[in-house]
Each structure stands twice: as structure tokens, then as C-alpha cells.
Amino acid sequence: MYKSVIVGTGPAGLTAAIYLARANMRPLVIEGPEPGGQLTTTTEVENFPGFPEGIMGPELLENMRKQAERFGAEFYTGWVKKADLSERPFKLQVEGIEEILSETLIISTGASAKYLGIPNEQNNIGYGVSTCATCDGFFFKNKEIIVVGGGDSALEEANFLTRFASKVTVVHRREELRASKIMQDRARANKKIEWALNKTPVEVIADNQGVNGFKVVNNDSGKEEVIHTNGIFVAIGHHPNTGFLDGQITTDNNGYIITNPGTSETNIPGVFACGDVQDSRYRQAITAAGSGSMAAIDSERFIDSLEH
Predict the structure, then answer these.
(1) Is the dihedral of CA 83, 84, 90, 96 positive or negative?
(2) Which distant-in-sequence residues (6+ apart) come within 8 Å of 98 by Cβ?
(3) Is 132 a catalytic residue?
(4) C-alpha angle with apex 17: 4 to 75, nearest 5 degrees?
(5) Each residue's pLDDT tens digit, 259-305
(6) Are 168 and 146 in contact (CB under 8 A)?
(7) Per the residue annotation, which of 84, 132, 152, 207 is the catalytic one?
(8) Is-catalytic flag, 84?
(9) Who is most buried in 55, 178, 246, 298, counting CB within 10 A?
């Protein structure tokens, strides 16, 4: 039996663990076999406060984990296979453990970026392939960049990247974009944005220096071509990691957990959500960490209300 269990070890979950551990709640933090979330795929983080020279993403996560352990947080590695949130204490079936009981639950399982699934994509993440323009755009000053996608997020990232890049080319599989008219108008009015529509991505071209090209096929002619680029930003969406909840928590149409405004509270008392699993707008390490502290405080106050 635990007072609080945290599922997920990105910036949100680790911050929640730090806060709860300092409050003598001795939380259990359950991490998957690949802990840390999207920050583990980021090389240098330059926009997290307190690190004027920047810090590597995995190093930042390791420091946060050590800080939580210092105050007494426990960690266990394994998949949460099922959660029963019908009554308190909540019951979690975790790989390698028969059952875990907890008075409160903090869900910080994040959202996974969708990738193209083409050759050389995964092994160049952090070396020219990215899914976050606000995180990595700074590294592409005066360089040519590709944004893959046709929705609002893709065009928003393309517009943002023109602050740094000499040219941004939007690559989309179809001739028609899915983005809203206002976003299309804004992007088409930007002189730094060029278009490669009706072209399907085939392969990321790279050498030991990183990405230098993007192979696509023209859907009309069937001919392949290579677009020169120094960076490829994949903006085809994210999917929140909530499968283990079996629909017990209220989500929006895209699967993101809905929290009460200004809090981390979900539709189930005692269950809280923080980080990218409930944030489809910002998706930054610092906002995830901030929401993690909110979830910890909400959890602690919930426990206090039970004891009184």
C-alpha cells in the first residue's frame, strides 16, 4: 500500500516524485523499460532554466531522478498492465509484481511523437531529425530545413522555424493540406516557406555529420528525388500513452486526459495527471515539470483531506 504512485518518469513524473518525497510521502515511481520520455531523444537542452551552458536531455533526467531518490522516492521498472480505478485504494497490475495498492495515482506517461517509419529516421533523432521546433529550432540558424506534415501543427512549426532557417520546405503526402485556412494563408504568405506537396517520404539521407538530404517520391510521376536539407522536423502528431487506463479517465477527442482548469485533477477523485499526457498545446520540459509539481501538491492535499 502506498499513499501515492506515479506512473511515468519524464520531467513531470520526476518533479512530482521530488515534491512528494520531500513531503515524506515516500512515493513509488513506476517507469517503463525505456524511462524518461521524449527528453531522452533530445541531445542538448538549452531552454531549461538553471543551465546557462545547456544540458544533455538524459543527463537532466538522471539529475532529477537522483534528486527524487535522495528524498526517499522508490523506483520500479516495469509496464503497468492494468489499472482498476473503480474504488480506492486504486489497484495497479504491474509487470513483475502481483498488485500495487495506492490511495492516489499520478499519471505522467507522456505522449509519444508519431514518426514516419522510414530508413535512417530513428538513428538520426537528435542529429538532424526532430519532433519539436521550439526545442531544436535554434540549432538550425541560417540552414535549410524540412517540415513534414500538412496540419496546423506542421504549418505552425514551419512559420516558427523561419525565425532561424534560411529556407523551410513543407513536405506533405497530398496536394491538399489539412491545416485551417488561416494557418495556410499565413504560411503561404511567408517568403521563407517553400512547398513539396503530393510527395511521399522515402528515406532520411545522412552521413557521419548528420542529416543532409530527404528522399521523396512524386506521387504523380513515381520518380524519386532528394531534397537538400540540414534538418527534418516531423510534425504528424502525437499519441498520449493512456492505453493501460481502459477508458476510465475522461479524455478529449485525441486521447489527452482532461484535467479540471487550474489543477491536475481528473474525473476520478484521487487520480491526477501531469505532463504531456494532458498537454497537447505546449509539450515542453519546463511546463511538464511545472504540472508535475501541481500534481504532487494536489495529491498531498487529497491525502491530508482523507486523514482529517
Answers:
(1) negative
(2) none
(3) yes
(4) 80
(5) 999 999 999 999 999 999 999 888 889 999 999 999 999 999 999 99
(6) yes
(7) 132
(8) no
(9) 298
